[in-house]
Amino acid sequence: MGAVLFYHLTRRPLEAVLPPLLEKALAQGWRVCLRGTDAERLDWLDRKLWLGPEEQFLPHGLAGGPHDALQPVLLTTACGPAANGAACLMAIDGAEVSPGEARAMARTCILFDGADPEALGRARAQWRALTAAGIGAEYWSEESGRWERRDSR
């Protein structure tokens, strides 16, 4: 069972923060299930990832295609990490992560927008639920301009 890392986005938008996190997960040899709450938002994110610099290409796909099981990074709203054999679950836009899912992953990352009070509230609720279930959690902030592990809030 890996830890759950909460990433509090305060300086950069999701589309800027996500590629380096995905690269780190892939460098560990993990497949990633990137779970969102809105299919249109995931479609937009899919396009953003395809338009990145060629040298930073991130192999990925939207769920629902014939090759979901082969995708190193699978963007989805509904299916779980088993769809592509993920060892890392990344949740965005308030997508829920159950304690059972977090226990099954090598790493779980929950990314949330610090400028959105609702997103902040959902992240805090997730923190309480997961830590109450005995899952280790870390809080990461980019407030200083780079990612730093902080005491929980």
What do these coordinates show?
The protein is of the alpha/beta class and 153 residues long. The protein has one domain: 3-Layer(aba) Sandwich (Rossmann fold). The chain is built from four helices and eight strands, in the order E-H-E-H-E-E-E-H-E-H-E-E. Strand 5, helix 3 and strand 6 form a beta-alpha-beta unit. The longest helix has 16 residues. The radius of gyration is 14 Å and the shape is globular. The model has no long low-confidence stretch (mean pLDDT 91).
Keywords:
153 residues; alpha/beta; Rossmann fold; globular
Architecture blueprint of SSEs:
Layout (H helix, E strand, L loop, with lengths): L3 E6 L4 H14 L4 E4 L3 H12 L10 E2 L10 E4 L11 E4 L7 H6 L2 E7 L3 H16 L4 E5 L6 E3 L3
Parallel strand pairs: 1-6, 1-7, 2-4, 2-5, 3-4, 5-6
Antiparallel strand pairs: 7-8
At the fold tier of CATH, the topology name is Rossmann fold
Give the tally of structural domains: 1
Mean pLDDT: 91
Helix and strand composition category: alpha/beta
Unreliable stretches (pLDDT < 50, length at least 5) are none
Sum this structure up briefly.
The chain has 153 residues and is α/β, with parallel strands linked by helices. The chain has helices at residues 14-27, 39-50, 99-104, 117-132, and strands at 4-9, 32-35, 61-62, 73-76, 88-91, 107-113, 137-141, 148-150.
